[in-house]
Amino acid sequence: xxxxxxxxxxxxxxxxxxxxxxxxxxxxxxxxxxxxxxxxxxxxxxxxxxxxxxxxxxxxxxxxxxxxxxxxxxxxxxxxxxxxxxxxxxxxxxxxxxxxxxxxxxxxxxxxxxxxxxxxxxxxxxxxxxxxxxxxxxxxxxxxxxxxxxxxxxxxxxxxxxxxxxxxxxxxxxxxxxxxxxxxxxxxxxxxxxxxxxxxxxxxxxxxxxxxxxxxxxxxxxxxxxxxxxxxxxxxxxxxxxxxxxxxxxxxxx
Amino acid sequence: xxxxxxxxxxxxxxxxxxxxxxxxxxxxxxxxxxxxxxxxxxxxxxxxxxxxxxxxxxxxxxxxxxxxxxxxxxxxxxxxxxxxxxxxxxxxxxxxxxxxxxxxxxxxxxxxxxxxxxxxxxxxxxxxxxxxxxxxxxxxxxxxxxxxxxxxxxxxxxxxxxxxxxxxxxxxxxxxxxxxxxxxxxxxxxxxxxxxxxxxxxxxxxxxxxxxxxxxxxxxxxxxxxxxxxxxxxxxxxxxxxxxxxxxxxxxxxxxxxxxxxxxx
Lengths: 254, 265
Prior knowledge:
The complex is a heterodimer of chains A (about 250) and B (about 260). By secondary structure, chain A is mainly alpha-helical. Chain A has a single domain (about 65-240), classed as MetI-like fold, CATH 1.10.3720. Chain A contains eleven helices and no strands. The model of chain A is unreliable at about 250-254 (pLDDT under 50). Helices cover about 40% and strands about 20% of the residues of chain B. In chain B, strand 9 and strand 10 form a beta hairpin. The mean pLDDT of chain B is about 90. At the A-B interface, helix 8 and helix 9 of A face strand 6 and helix 2 of B.
């Protein structure tokens, strides 16, 4: 509780600093905005309900990119983790794809999939996929060989091994990658919108920039930050629910 | 002589071009016999067990299970590993039930069976706990229940109690003997601890120092059963056996130590 008060205090202090610097002309408000005006924009957006349509689009893109990216990442990670030959063949290609700055794909996706949500989802998927893929791949390769030997002695068929040993083992790695993955999905959606769209929070920010409305830009950033934190909290919730077996996790009573 | 449960016939195992780990091993375990295998570090004791389990295939020779050559996993054997092999994401009950489910038993029946086995190893109250919430001795009990629930005819044990403290270890040894006496099965028990081998076994086999390890001595342990592993160590018969076997084992241990020292310099 003390910590919480201290954190709120720090936030208020930073806002006060911002207010002071811009109010007394130490920082030009034209470039740095004003906290009270940012608040006004937020109230206007939320009051008119206009923000929810844009936010809904951005969150839909994020959710689709997140779910599809994870599904592809998990299945490819399991597949390559269990087939060393295919993994050896594809290794340099995967490394190349991962090293490529994938944000530059956004314009290509825009021409392929149009300016609707599909191009944003595609960009998000390319970002989410690799995070999840590498975690699952590593997770499958790092499965404790003793667990595999024991399960085989207990009569596990190759299919049962995947389902009861490799899969749960990989899942614990997937969860540790989900925090990064959900952020990536969000980045994909917003950057995609920013580079060309007709709706979404990224579009709002782009519009505001076009009219030099720096306060609206900051308002958009605030909305995005709050949403990113909320998504991260959702992942933590899921993590607590599914990883209760892990030492040090919530639900463990020793 | 009673039925043969397990037999290594001229078994050699080599990895790549290196010197073989095991060289022409001939060894037989009767269907109701408790066989202990001792030997210095690095003599391929665990390898011998992995061959019997079917986790490894011999480079030469055959492993026979109840008279039939073994191919693939040994379905009539259970294996208690040295390390912790419980699935960390399953609680004790689900861990014990795992083998039963793998064998196609419906989940509800497997769980009921698992609870019964947990009760038998004294963990009836810990069924809901996850492995990280169990002590080393409790984990071993769960692993024991996991193995026994499948009613294997051959029990393979690889230094199962070596990581436990001395008191827990004697308790577990006595419990193992009690479970085994209730239903005698073939046991192959690997240990580096000669006292443990004599206290538990019907027969003790001494392996030579590696590489190219093989059995170099065999001793029948005719101590009366039921035994208490802590008390039996004090009896004169035990001490005599220990002295006799140690004469042989000491030489192998010294050879292994010398080879190790050579490799280090």
